[in-house]
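The record is kept unedited without comment:

——
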Amino acid sequence: MTQRTTMGTLPPDWFLKVRLKLRHLQLFLALDDHRNLHRAAASLAMSQPAASKLLGELEGRLGVQLFERHSRGIEPNWYGEVAVRHARHILSSLQQTGDELNALGAGNAGAVSIGTVMAPAVTLISRALERVHQQLPNLKVSVDVDVSPVLVPRLLEGEFDMVISRIPTDQDPSRFVFEEIGEEAISIVCRRDHPLAHKASPSLAEMATYPWSLQPPGALMRQRVDHLLMYHNVTPPARIINTSDILVSLALVARSDTLTVISQDVAELLCDPERFRVLPTEEALSVQPYGLITLRQHRLSPGAAALTTVLREVMAEQPLSRASQAPDAS
């Protein structure tokens, strides 16, 4: 990928000097999404010549090319990737500003968006939301549940005010404030009448003879299971269904001899003893700690700050994870 390197050092108010407009930011995103100048222009109700002129004028003022033009279309170079990333964050922040202003205008206490991995969604966040709504009954809160590698980039792009997850290894931890909550205890679950359900201490080798439904390779719980089998020199199951959807996994478990691995808190909430069993294991199983993550150089809205305060209160009241307390038999 070729780069033009004639750009000098930009002053703090560079965006004023180059006359940066919101239309430029919208064009950056449209070009990144469509990778085609004609389609990007059409999505913004612009003509292709007008879009080309808008981009070219800004690149000229900056003294650097942001997008590479070629026969297959157009794509951001390294400079363009920086511009696109920050454009997404700026436009997302502006949208959130509108949401908060609308909420305040309607007599509400603002709006908060939070992302979380599964375990705290059913324990920590549910308690925090109940408490914060006693203080701010009109606070609008949206909660998205996903895995850490999806949540943290969305936090960086401004889609969330905070997330409860882990910092992925491909992210610079210096960009975040991480407040550890605790390890996530996990359980191996089967149906109530599974052949292993009433064994006092089924071995991993016995479990591995049955089908499993697991998170996709690379996911944290999947890594823990893979390591556990490797550590005990057990051949992995011959049939594994890869899915990050817990309801799909539990449906398979309920209807067959499939086993699955889920958070202990989620198992207690969703796994009715009349239908499911948690298999005993020789050692306490857990995955690395998760925590409350916010952006280091980002000021929270009043509603987000209030929710963060309540989350910290609930975190302080929460006992150590059972995985941390249990003796490790390994």
